[in-house]
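A.,

Following up on our hallway conversation. Structure tokens first:
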């Protein structure tokens, strides 16, 4: 299967190529190429250094149309990636960019678009209950739970899902949204990752209240890189019309549902944040 990977050089894109290169013929599409000097939170150089990249912007409809042609599927990861984005930033990069990908995919006869949505499309549930929700909750957020975006970024991801529903309803393509939770680069690919990054950046000390809160949150939100790749692999084999799944590992304290993804596409997450009692040595 030929798969166009937009935003290919980011955290999720590299998780997919690291584990799925033998399964798919990936075309890397990104706003930049990478080389040996590109920053990378992992061993050695960036894993895409030296690989051919189609350089372009998803906000450029012509560039997207050219890149999509000849592919069986698109994994659409590109966009402004954080909740601090202004509406202008997410409008151009996330809303217009996603519409461009769907337009191009429908016109090119692409079978499936797998869309990198976000837990922030329903982030209001966390914001309302934090930090208690990181330790214990009876809340279950699944594919039927109403939107509660927590930011313009979250709203832009909800908009992308709605666009996908429109195209799926028209029979133009299959559409799967993955509401990604917390996937990290290799150095921080564990439930202590965000806490340890804060130590490395001087924002708090190991063992502080701020550190422990980050650990508690990640033990609920973490999706390991191998579970992330496994879920996207499952989604590329999706045979329905439209669906939404949560990108999270099988964490004991999670509030996001994974049973729907298990039932529909056979997602079988292998990791649980509770299995970790400290950061890797």
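Then the amino acids I'd put at each of the 281 positions:
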């Amino acid at each position: 299967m030929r798969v166009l990977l937009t935003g290919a050089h980011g955290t999720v894109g590299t998780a997919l190529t690291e584990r799925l290169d033998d399964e798919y013929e990936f075309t890397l599409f990104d706003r930049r190429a990478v080389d040996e000097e590109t920053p990378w939170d992992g061993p050695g150089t960036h894993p895409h250094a030296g690989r051919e990249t189609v350089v372009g912007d998803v906000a450029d409809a012509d560039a997207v149309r050219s890149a999509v042609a000849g592919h069986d599927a698109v994994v659409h990861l590109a966009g402004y990636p954080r909740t601090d984005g202004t509406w202008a930033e997410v409008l151009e990069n996330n809303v217009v960019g996603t519409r461009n990908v769907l337009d191009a995919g429908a016109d090119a006869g692409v079978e499936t678009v797998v869309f990198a949505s976000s837990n922030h499309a329903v982030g209001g549930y966390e914001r309302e209950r934090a930090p208690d929700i990181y330790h214990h909750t009876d809340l279950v957020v699944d594919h039927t739970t109403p939107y509660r975006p927590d930011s313009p970024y979250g709203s832009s991801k909800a908009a992308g899902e709605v666009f996908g529903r429109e195209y799926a309803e028209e029979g133009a393509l299959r559409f799967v949204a993955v509401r990604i939770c917390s996937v990290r680069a290799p150095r921080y690919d564990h439930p202590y990752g965000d806490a340890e990054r804060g130590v490395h950046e001087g924002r708090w000390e190991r063992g502080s209240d701020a550190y422990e809160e980050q650990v508690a949150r990640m033990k609920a939100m973490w999706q390991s890189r191998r579970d992330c790749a496994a879920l996207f692999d499952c989604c590329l084999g999706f045979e329905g019309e439209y669906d939404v799944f949560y990108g999270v590992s099988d964490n004991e304290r999670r509030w996001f549902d994974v049973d729907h993804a298990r039932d529909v596409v056979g997602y079988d997450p292998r990791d649980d944040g509770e299995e970790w009692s400290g950061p890797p040595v």
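The chain has a mean pLDDT of 97. Curious whether your intuition agrees with the design.

B.
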